[in-house]
């Protein structure tokens, strides 16, 4: 089942969250296509470890392009239950499909109501076109 | 949040800010904040409209709105290494000196001898203060005007132009017969760089301009538009730099892009200009050079002619030329994929702090992170293993011979 950007929730800083199944309380987190395009020429990504806790709007990792380093911020709080370790060696997956192949971490949410504070696709899109 | 640092914000050059104001704090960011909020009036090069209409990502550099990248740093970098890249470098300062004593004035303010320059010669030089600290690095050209008179052109860094023009005033007063003009705004400057640069220019320039030797320049014309051509550049590739009238710039630029279509020409922004010059180990003012650095530690002793000359800073430079204990500029190749940026600290294998990175980037040509740095002279030896602190993680590196890249 393919995830499309319309179904996702966003931070204004371009990270997305997706909950495939409400009963699990697990959110998949990534960065938007807009973010990938802005960054260009990605060379490195630092990810947290499984079991690490993350806090909404706090840094969970960083992504580096030829000229810039950008921290990535978590849309939700919780515990990291899975990381996409294959992505680190194949950052071009982010360019190909940032919403499926390019997912970054999965987080067991401690406060799912945080999702309600995120931007929906329309609001996020509007922000990107400023 | 994921912060979009404009690529060049990481250049860390004083005076660099994003145009739209989305500047964020970052460890590598050396932005003059007061200046940023006040500088609503940005200067534009005569090619601004072209950049904007061709998808360039723009940022402010030395108070100019400049293209940072068009398609992407790596693609523009590689185009310059393998084919030809075209750069708008109109932000560079262009200062003209006329009069029979212009050579003597410049000989007095430059570390490099000027009085023996022949028509058509270009030299790399430094301008130092009396303490021997570097005020700027420059190119000085001896040119012949169409009317047959010799004059000199000094190309200075954009970020230092105002400082240098101000600093020159008392020296100009000592040579009242020398006519000085800052011709930056009246002209544009375009670099054509890469293995196919000369081929690109074949339909555009007279044969005499295409056969210029390295570091030679002449006044000629580009399809009847007056033009100064010099065989110089800031990429490590062969190529030319053109200076044309501001009103002719758009036409000349279009001619170049047209002539290069079959050759794989790409417009190149300041992002790739920085990675190209870094691979070629060319210093950048504000990084490898500043007023606390002297030419010898920067490895630029060749640009100082101390013998039988009196010039600003010469006494201090004689002393500095004998001091082997000061930190030296070196090149590092790092393990892994992360680049060390300006300010990253460097440690020896005993965890002793021995220096600091001045420029660092991922090198598209080497496919590895590279950096230039100043380190204690005791460890400044090719082959020495050093650790670089990249945001809290120590990364192994080794000192290598500069430049990182030499054209085949």
List keywords for this structure.
heterodimer; A: 130 residues; 6-stranded antiparallel beta sheet; 4 helices; 9 strands; B: 408 residues; alpha+beta; Gyrase A, domain 2; Elongation Factor Tu (Ef-tu), domain 3; 3 domains; 6-stranded mixed beta sheet; 6-stranded antiparallel beta barrel
Number of helices of chain B: 10
> What's the quaternary structure here?
heterodimer
On the 0-100 scale, what is the average pLDDT of chain A? 94
Give the class of chain A from helix and strand content and strand pairing.
Answer: alpha+beta
Q: Reading side by side through the largest sheet of chain A, how are the strands ordered?
A: 1-2-3-9-8-5
Largest sheet of chain A: 6 strands, antiparallel
- Fraction of residues in β-strands of chain B: 25-35%
* Proportion of residues in helical segments of chain A: 10-25%
Question: How do the helices and strands line up, and which of them pair or pack?
Answer:
The complex is a heterodimer of chains A (130) and B (408).
Chain A: E1 9-10, E2 15-18, E3 26-31, H1 33-39, E4 42-46, E5 53-54, E6 59-65, E7 69-73, E8 78-83, H2 85-88, H3 92-96, E9 105-109, H4 121-128
Antiparallel strand pairs in A: 1-2, 2-3, 3-9, 4-6, 5-8, 6-7, 8-9
Chain B: E1 17-18, H1 33-38, E2 43-44, H2 48-53, E3 57-61, E4 64-69, H3 73-82, E5 85-88, E6 93-98, H4 102-109, E7 122-128, E8 134-144, E9 150-156, H5 161-174, E10 179-182, E11 187-193, H6 197-201, H7 207-210, E12 217-222, E13 225-230, E14 239-245, H8 249-259, E15 266-268, H9 270-279, H10 314-320, E16 328-334, E17 345-347, E18 353-363, E19 368-375, E20 385-390, E21 393-400
Parallel strand pairs in B: 2-4, 5-15
Antiparallel strand pairs in B: 1-3, 3-4, 5-11, 6-9, 6-10, 7-8, 8-9, 11-14, 12-13, 13-14, 16-19, 16-21, 17-18, 17-20, 18-19, 20-21
């Amino acid at each position: 089942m393919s995830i499309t950007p319309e179904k996702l929730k966003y931070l204004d800083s371009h990270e997305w969250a997706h909950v495939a199944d409400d009963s699990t309380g697990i959110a998949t987190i990534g960065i938007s296509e807009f973010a990938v395009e802005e960054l260009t020429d990605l060379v490195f990504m630092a990810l947290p470890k499984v079991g690490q806790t993350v806090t909404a709007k706090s840094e969970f990792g960083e992504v580096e392009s030829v000229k810039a380093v950008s921290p990535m911020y978590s849309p939700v709080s919780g515990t990291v239950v899975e990381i996409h370790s294959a992505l680190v060696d194949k950052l071009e997956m982010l360019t190909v499909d940032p919403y499926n192949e390019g997912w970054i971490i999965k987080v067991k949410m401690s406060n799912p109501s945080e999702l309600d504070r995120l931007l929906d696709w329309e609001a996020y899109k509007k922000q990107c076109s400023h | 949040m994921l912060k979009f640092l404009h690529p060049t914000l990481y250049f860390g050059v004083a005076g660099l800010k994003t145009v739209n104001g989305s500047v964020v704090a970052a460890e590598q960011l050396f932005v003059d904040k007061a200046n940023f909020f006040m500088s609503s009036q940005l200067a534009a090069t005569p090619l601004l409209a072209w950049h904007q209409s061709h998808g360039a990502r723009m940022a402010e550099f030395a108070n100019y709105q400049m293209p940072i990248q068009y398609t992407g740093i790596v693609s523009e970098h590689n185009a310059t290494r393998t084919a030809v890249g075209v750069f708008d470098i109109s932000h560079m300062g262009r200062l003209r000196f006329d009069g029979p004593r212009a050579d003597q004035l410049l000989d007095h303010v430059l570390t490099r001898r000027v009085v023996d320059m022949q028509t058509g010669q270009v030299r790399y030089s430094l301008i130092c203060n009396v303490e021997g600290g570097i005020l700027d690095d420059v190119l000085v050209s001896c040119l012949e005007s169409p009317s047959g008179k010799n004059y000199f052109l000094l190309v200075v860094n954009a970020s230092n132009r105002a400082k240098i023009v101000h600093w020159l005033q008392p020296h100009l007063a000592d040579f009242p017969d020398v006519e000085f003009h800052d011709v930056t705004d009246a002209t544009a400057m375009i670099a054509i760089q890469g293995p196919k640069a000369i081929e690109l220019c074949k339909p555009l320039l007279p044969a005499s301009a295409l056969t210029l030797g390295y570091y030679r320049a002449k006044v000629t014309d580009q399809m009847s538009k007056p033009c100064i051509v010099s065989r110089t550049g800031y990429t490590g590739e062969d190529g030319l730099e053109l200076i044309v009238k501001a009103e002719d710039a758009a036409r000349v630029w279009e001619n170049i892009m047209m002539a290069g279509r079959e050759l794989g020409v790409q417009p190149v922004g300041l992002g790739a200009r920085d990675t190209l010059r870094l691979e070629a180990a060319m210093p950048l003012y504000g990084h490898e050079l500043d007023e606390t650095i002297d030419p010898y530690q920067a490895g630029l002793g060749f640009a100082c002619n101390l013998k039988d000359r009196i010039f600003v800073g010469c006494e201090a430079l004689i002393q500095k030329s004998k001091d082997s204990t000061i930190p030296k500029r070196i090149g590092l190749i790092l393990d892994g994929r992360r680049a060390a940026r300006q300010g990253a600290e460097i440690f020896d294998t005993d965890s002793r702090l021995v220096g600091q990175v001045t420029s660092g980037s991922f090198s598209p040509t080497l496919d590895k992170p590279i950096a230039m740095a100043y380190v204690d002279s005791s460890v400044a030896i090719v082959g020495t293993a050093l650790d670089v602190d990249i945001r809290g993680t120590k990364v192994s590196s080794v000192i290598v011979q500069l430049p990182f890249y030499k054209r085949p």
